[in-house]
Design goal:
This protein has 210 residues and is α+β, with helices and mostly antiparallel strands. It folds into 2 domains: 9-21 and 79-210, no CATH class; 39-78, no CATH class. It is built from 5 helices and 6 strands. The strands form 2 sheets. A 3-stranded antiparallel β-sheet has the order 1-2-3, with no helix packed on it. Strand 2 (58-61) and strand 3 form a beta hairpin. Helix 4 (106-113) crosses helix 5 (118-132). The longest helix is centred in the middle third of the chain and has 15 residues, at 118-132. The radius of gyration is 19 Å and the shape is elongated. The protein starts with 12 loop residues before the first helix and ends in a 17-residue tail after the last strand.
């Protein structure tokens, strides 16, 4: 009997809004996934840290600088650091980029977030795409389904020297960035930039990385 392919349900907009209803939801998610074994200092890696009750989502490391200590937030060392854009907006843009099959342009992002300049939207997209190339991405467990999407929006919305070839529908030759997506059965999505889509099929096993 032919085995039926498992159905993978990506997070819908409604599910996103329910899970990430506010900034605290996003911050809690980031902390839980960044430090699954408990918060540690991003500078020295020490575990002697304590939460600053007077400062939300801030900690102090007692091992870093014996006399002055070191204070940090959940955003330090991430693409979200030193930005005025709410974390929830970042999460929404990332959700757009990993669920859109045709890719997302900075112009589309600018329209959706409804604030800031086009340059801000472009910078966000650039940082997120760079983040996809970071080797420190989380492991996926269980059955996953691998797919690829092409990020970059339509050619006509990009500068002429970055439009590439192709028929404008996306895919190989379109000038867009190919991003592999591995989706866990429970709904988690990992995205990573692919050096090439012309390769042998990827094999994903439990407790392995893409």
């Amino acid at each position: 009997m032919k085995t039926k392919k498992p159905v993978i349900h990506q997070m819908t907009i409604a599910q996103f809004d329910a899970q990430f209803a506010n900034e605290d939801d996003c911050a809690a998610y980031l902390v839980a996934h960044r430090w699954p074994k408990g918060v540690s200092c991003p500078r020295c890696g020490g575990n002697r840290v304590y939460k600053l009750e007077s400062m939300k989502w801030k900690w102090e490391c007692m091992e870093c600088g014996k006399s002055t200590s070191y204070r940090f937030s959940h955003l330090v060392g991430t693409i979200f650091e030193n930005t005025n854009m709410p974390l929830r907006t970042w999460f929404r843009v990332i959700h757009m980029m990993v669920t859109s099959k045709k890719g997302v342009s900075a112009l589309q992002v600018h329209r959706v977030i409804g604030t800031g300049s086009y340059q801000t939207a472009w910078s966000m997209c650039h940082k997120i795409r760079a983040g996809f190339q970071d080797e420190q991405f989380q492991k996926l467990m269980g059955i996953v389904e691998v797919d690829e999407t092409f990020v970059g929006g339509k050619a006509r919305n990009r500068h002429k020297d970055k439009r590439g070839g192709g028929d404008g529908t996306g895919g190989i030759g379109s000038g867009k960035i190919p991003v592999g997506r591995a989706v866990q059965r429970k709904g988690n999505v990992i995205a990573k930039v692919l050096e090439s889509t012309l390769m042998r099929p990827l094999t994903i096993r439990g407790a392995s990385t893409l």
